[in-house]
Amino acid sequence: MSYIHVENLIKRYGNGDAAVMAVGGMSFHIQMGEFVAVMGESGSGKSTLLSMMGGLNTPTSGQYSVDGLVVYQLGQDKRADFRREFLGFVFQSFHLVPYLTILENVMVPLVTVKTNGRTKRSMAEDALSRVGLDGKEHRLPSQVSGGEQERVAIARAIVNEPPILLADEPSGSLDTKTSREVMDLLRSLNQEGMTIVMVTHSPECAGYARRLLRISDGLLVEDVPLNGKDT
Amino acid sequence: MTLKDIALRNIRRRKAKAAFVLAGLLIAVSTAVALLGLIEAMNLDIQKKLEEYGANILILPKTENLSLTYGGLSLGGVSFEMQEILQADLARVKVIENAANVAAMGPTVLGGVEVKERKVLLAGVDFEATKILKPWWKVGGTLPSDFGVLLGSEAARVLALETGDYFEVNGSELHVSGILAPTGSQDDQLVFARLSTAQSLLHKEGRVSMVEVAALCNACPIEAMVGQISRALPDTKVMAIQQVVQGRMETLDYFRKFSYGVTAVLVLVGSLVVLVTMMGSVRERTSEIGIFRAMGFRRSHVIRIVLLEAGIISAMAGILGYSVGFASTKLVLPLFTGSHTIGVIFDPVLAAGAFAAAVIMGLASSVYPALLAARIDPTDALRAL
């Protein structure tokens, strides 16, 4: 039984002649623990698809469910709870909060979780340790390198141990070496059982995945398995 | 890490914006506190002045005669029958509803006597009550004992008497124990003796000609007290001397209304400053709010962050605003009252009111920006996603 269901998902912006079809009826299923790369040219609709899978962008029509939960039938608050419990986001431009320290940034998803402060801190420190950022907890994002900022973003995405990680060009702003380190990190998270859906332009990064969804003009044109790079 | 921590960190990061909101609220609150403090202090000043004015209610015997004096001039050669009040009846004034407002009651008996072949008005008074009723009296010498008198300055001059002299009235020898410094009033013309002494000399035992009452409070229900005394002493005519006080109270009332108007305008301007600044702050933080929403923050969490920020700044503005307003009142008060003796006292109600007003103003003005923040579309906010 598949874990993520995308059924004829459509996203249209605007009305009438000015309407733009960003996603034009996409259907696919993802099993728990899969590592899926989504590729396509700019404007093909891959980021729109990812934002809909993130529960952030209501589709014009179609159905999207995770673990039996029909996401867009949920109210705003329940959808926020869904994001907190099921999803971790990694954005291309990191999107760290500049006035919070690295540790505090990682703790952001835990702010609304009903757990005591000490436990939250310990969870954040564990997440930072997993991405290899011990000892830099009290620095501001501006005081660390781009690669380290990306690691902070990944630590923030996994701090509350969500089952799904949605990554948008996670290595897009990084040099080749750092990009490989980040991809190795994502692969190790996947090996620990996390389902990963990653949007990328880079064939090398896509090579880390075990399945490729290729999108063109808002349509799914290719759905093929990949071997994944050897560890 | 809590919502409050995020709010505090943001305040620290956007110091200029926070300072602007703080300044807007501070000006409104401190001005309101200063104006209200001034009104309160001026009220106290009036209360003090009231005490200095002495009597403000006069009890006279009911008469059908019209007064034949005007501006201190009397129509010579006209004799009139003087009616009197029974001294024993005055006890009824002590049980009227507002008896607690009666600070002093001075019964006075008046009658003409002959001193050194000259007609002079003898007034029998209660010298203890006189200290409150006529605080402006300056006595050269001492207050009289049973067979002593106090002379008005003009009476002493005309009768050529000095402190320590003796003279005779109706067969009794009286001793001049003191002379009043000129008061500019009719008191300068009179010879004052103890009430009992004067009653005896005038053969008016147990009777008084008039009673002066000092009701000492700025918001005294003078008219109500006049009514109460009139009912207690139905055979008398009770009058309130309130022109001066009323004039000052009216001026203060105008100032009070003006202050409320200024305060209302400042509150409006302060609220607008908060509204505009908070809206600017929310717009600047669109992507940050998008991150929070993507991380599972509900709309209510975003609203709480914005309102917490506004609440923290407003609370600071409340405390600072009261302090600045209080200090301003102290500085400005002497210019308004011309007196350095009236102090400004800490008013916990005003302090609590200023604090509450600042917080309410800050929060109320931030509700719309907070709702705006909560309505931010996370997809629009995170364009890179």
How would you summarize this macromolecular structure in one to three sentences?
With 231 residues, chain A is α/β, with parallel strands linked by helices.
Could you walk me through the main structural features you see in this protein, from its secondary elements to its overall organization?
- The longest helix of chain A is centred in the C-terminal third of the chain and has 16 residues, at 176-191.
- Chain A has one domain: P-loop containing nucleotide triphosphate hydrolases (Rossmann fold, 3-Layer(aba) Sandwich).
- Chain A is built from 7 helices and 10 strands.
- In chain A, helix 4 (117-130) packs across helix 5 and helix 5 (146-158) packs parallel to helix 6 (176-191).
- In chain A, the strands form 2 sheets. In chain A, strands 6-7-8-3-9-10 form a 6-stranded mixed sheet, sandwiched between helices. A 4-stranded antiparallel sheet of chain A has the order 2-1-4-5, with helices on one face.
- By secondary structure, chain A is an alpha/beta fold.
- The mean pLDDT of chain A is 89.
- The relative contact order of chain A is 0.19.
- Chain A has helices at residues 46-53, 76-86, 102-107, 117-130, 146-158, 176-191, 203-206, and strands spanning 4-13, 20-30, 35-40, 61-66, 69-70, 87-90, 164-168, 195-199, 211-216, 219-225.
- With 385 residues, chain B is an alpha+beta fold.
- Chain B has 2 domains: 3-48 and 248-381, no CATH class; 56-240, no CATH class.
- Chain B has 11 helices and 14 strands.
- In chain B, strands 1, 5, 6, 7, 8, 9, 10, 11, 13 and 14 form a 10-stranded mixed sheet that branches.
- The chains are: A alpha/beta (231), B alpha+beta (385).
